[in-house]
Specification:
Rossmann fold, 13 helices, alpha/beta
């Protein structure tokens, strides 16, 4: 596929460093710039479509079709009890999960659904029949498993073995999924997945470099702005790689270009779980996080999905640029603060939330205490996952059973995985 094909689409993909148009399916700049490619859409105004779930934002998603079954979306509502507790008059919760009373139907209970559906749609549009490879600490794997059970697309999941408890699906038939558990951490899983993805018959989903993943996550901000009728002053989210923060920033740029919602970028407030907080170390100028060197991560984290050893910090269009552009802040949240925040939010709002989301709640509480936000400021709090306990009561959950276990230090691990995939999918 050549670059000019992008002109036939409703969007183009360009490098933020050189401005050159790229192949719409590309993950890297053709001129070699270390940058996150960005989408530019024909429609400049945000016009919601009468389509299910995330496809309401079809005009600002890099797809030419939709997967209608099983799709959810963010549900944004104005907080009352929790906002009153914090003394905030204009706090909105962007809820990503399962909460029937709020019409929230993200059936994996994580906003990673927002990445999985547009990414899968783009793969289907390529029609090349390759097996998608996804590395995950759990939530992303669950989201891609969900969409692959719907579409039948073969999927290779590579996850750290201590994350396997997070892998379940609502679908009794998960035969399109080959699950590999890795003796090692999330980055070990990523490295192994990347090696397999380079082989014939496999394709990487691309991680932070995939515009479909970022624009999918960006719909959190789109939904919030449609509900609030304005851009918020502040945006809070817990992050591992920081890609969700980048996505919120990119969506805000488009909303400013729209002209209907204000002209000031929301300030990003991004939270990590101490002591495993590489982004905070990088922002402080420490290339090497001592807690990682000492081998303390991701042990004893409130939620280890928030740990990524090599986040896209210094790349053009990455976390550093997003923080600089928005005057953003980083927060280090310890386990005790996260546990307190989770208990308080759940009691006052009436829904269970994932531990990662509790880290964001704790960051908001810290910001209010330190007066980083005003009592009347407009705020969006991204609850990146919730309703899992409620879902367990309402639905049957089927664990995804591992097909093979490998060690990150086994030189034969890659070959063993490829052999297992060939055996499972008979290819």
């Amino acid at each position: 596929m050549h670059c000019q094909v992008g002109l036939m689409h409703k969007y183009s993909v360009r490098c933020p460093t050189c401005g050159e148009m790229q192949d719409p399916m590309s993950l890297i700049c053709s001129k070699g710039h270390d940058a996150l490619l960005r989408t530019f859409y024909g429609p400049l105004q945000l016009t919601p479509r009468n389509m299910p779930g995330i496809w309401e934002f079809y005009d600002w998603l890099p797809v030419e079709g939709i997967i209608s079954e099983g799709t959810g979306k963010t549900v944004t509502y104005k907080s009352e009890a929790f906002a009153r507790k914090l003394g905030l008059s204009d706090l909105y919760v962007a809820f990503n999960g399962y909460w029937p009373e709020k019409n929230a139907s993200m059936m994996t209970c994580t906003f990673k659904d927002l990445e999985a559906f547009p990414t899968m749609q783009r793969l289907l549009e390529r029609q090349d029949g390759r097996i998608m490879v996804v590395a995950s600490a759990g939530n992303t794997a669950r989201a891609f498993a969900h969409v692959c059970c719907i579409t039948g697309q073969p999927l290779l999941l590579v996850v750290p073995e201590n994350s396997v408890h997070r892998l379940w699906t609502l679908h009794a038939d998960a035969s399109s999924i080959c699950l590999v558990t890795v003796e090692g951490d999330y980055y070990n899983a990523i490295e192994l997945a990347n090696k397999v993805a380079l082989r014939q018959r496999f394709v990487s989903e691309g991680g932070a470099k995939n515009v479909a993943r970022r624009d999918g996550m960006g719909t959190v901000m789109l939904d919030a702005v449609l509900t609030m009728k304005k851009l918020p002053m502040h945006y809070f989210q817990a992050v591992g790689s920081g890609t969700g923060g980048i996505s919120a920033w990119e969506a805000s740029i488009r909303l400013i270009q729209d002209g209907s919602f204000g002209n000031v970028l929301p300030q990003l407030h991004l939270a990590q779980n101490l002591p495993c907080a590489p982004l905070i170390s990088m922002r402080a100028g420490n290339i090497t996080d001592q807690s990682i060197v000492d081998g303390k991560c991701p042990e004893d984290m409130y939620d280890d999905v928030l740990f990524n050893r090599k986040p896209p910090y210094s790349v053009a269009g990455g976390v550093r640029d997003a923080l600089q552009a928005t005057g953003g802040r980083m927060y280090g949240i310890d386990n005790a603060a996260a546990a307190h925040a989770q208990q308080l939010f759940e009691e006052l709002e009436g829904i269970d939330i994932n531990p990662a989301a509790a880290v964001a709640v704790a960051a908001l509480m810290q910001a209010v205490e330190k007066k980083f936000t005003g009592h009347n400021d407009s705020i969006v709090l991204n609850i990146t996952g919730g309703g899992m306990e409620r879902l367990r009561r309402d639905c049957n959950l089927y664990p995804i059973v591992p097909d093979i276990r490998v060690s990150a230090h086994d030189p034969e691990a890659e070959s063993k995985i490829v052999d297992k995939v060939s055996e499972k999918f008979q290819r």
